[in-house]
Amino acid sequence: MPAGVGYRALAVLAVVGAVAMGAFLFELTGRHPAGALPGLVYLVAAVVLVWTPSGHELADRVALGLVLVVASIVMMGVLFVFGGRNPSSLLFGVVFLLAALVLLVGSAVRPGRGPTPAAVLPVLAVLVAGVITGWAFVSDDADPAALVHGSLLLVAVTVFLAGRRARGPGRFAVGAAVCAVSVGIVYFLAVSGGGVVPVVLGAVFLAALVGSLPAARSAEPAGPDPAVR
Questions:
Q1: Torsion of CA 127, 121, 57, 101, to 10 degrees
Q2: Less Cβ around it within 10 Å: N or C end of the chain?
Q3: How far apart are CA 194 and CA 99, in angstroms?
Q4: Between these two residues, 5 and 204, which has the higher pLDDT value?
Q5: Is residue 48 within 8 Å of 55, Cβ to Cβ?
Q6: What is the rounded distance in angstroms from the CA atom of residue 46 to the CA atom of residue 55?
Q7: pTM of the predicted model, to two decimals?
Q8: What separation, in Å, do the N-terminal and C-terminal C-alpha atoms of the chain show?
Q9: Helix, strand or coil for residue 197?
Q10: 148 Cβ neighbours under 8 A, 6+ residues apart
């Protein structure tokens, strides 16, 4: 249908835009690899939202939307700091926020029972990862390297959401593997000397992700995606 074609076209533009923004931030931050991470986070979340069954489950959709919002805000922060603190640079982040909004409302949510507490815990994990990213970036005087841990945690929870809606018993294995990787990320966050707050937040992130594992194990195999509006 034409609406579906338009939605997919916008999704492709959002993905291409995320790649371009990641490359631009890489250059803007003096070719620091961590500068590209906000674009990578946005890219992964957009792909999972549009092209996997998680994008049609209410709890997952909310979590993925928050990932897109956090990535857009981080982009705005990096653009503002490294772009000469010019307020007009914030407009690029606004564009990504608007694209995220359209992607969120542009397709239907699969009908079914309300989400369980375990199913909504990734929302908490996303919020915590976003706070870790912002806290580290500000407390480290806008050092691009400070984006690494929080951004990787955002990617981890996004992959977790995609994996728990996969078909077959592998969906729980994906969740367990993501939790194991997240433990390593939080460990490096703890030894990086960022202070007590990021470590406590990292522990909360891990608790939320581990608490979501029962939902990954019990998730029903996804059926056909609902039609795009």
A1: -10
A2: N
A3: 33
A4: 204
A5: yes
A6: 9
A7: 0.90
A8: 9
A9: helix
A10: 34, 37
pLDDT of 1 reads: 40
What DSSP string runs through 110-150? PP-SPPPHHHHHHHHHHHHHHHHHHHHHHHTTS-GGGGHHH
The two three-digit tokens of residue 159, written as one number: 């992959």
pLDDT by residue (tens digit) across 217-229? 555 544 445 545 5
Residue whose entry in the numeric block shows the structure tokens 């194991």: 180
Give the tokens for residue 174: 């994906």
Which residue bears the tokens 């969740």?
175
Angle formed at CA 75 by CA 71 and CA 77, multiple of 5 degrees: 115
Question: Per-residue pLDDT tens for 5-42?
Answer: 888 899 999 999 999 999 999 999 999 999 999 999 99
Cβ–Cβ under 8 Å, residues 60 and 122: yes
Nearest to 211 by CA among 123, 112, 118: 118
Report whether pLDDT(177) > 60: yes
Name the burial class of residue 91, with classes exposed (0-12), middle (13-18) and buried (19+) by CB atoms within 10 angstroms of its CB.
Answer: exposed
pLDDT of the residue at 44 = 97
Class of residue 127 by CB neighbours under 10 A (exposed 0-12, middle 13-18, buried 19+): middle
Query: Whose CA is closest to 41, among 70, 9, 16?
Result: 70
User: φ, ψ for residue 48 (rounded to 5)?
Assistant: -65, -40
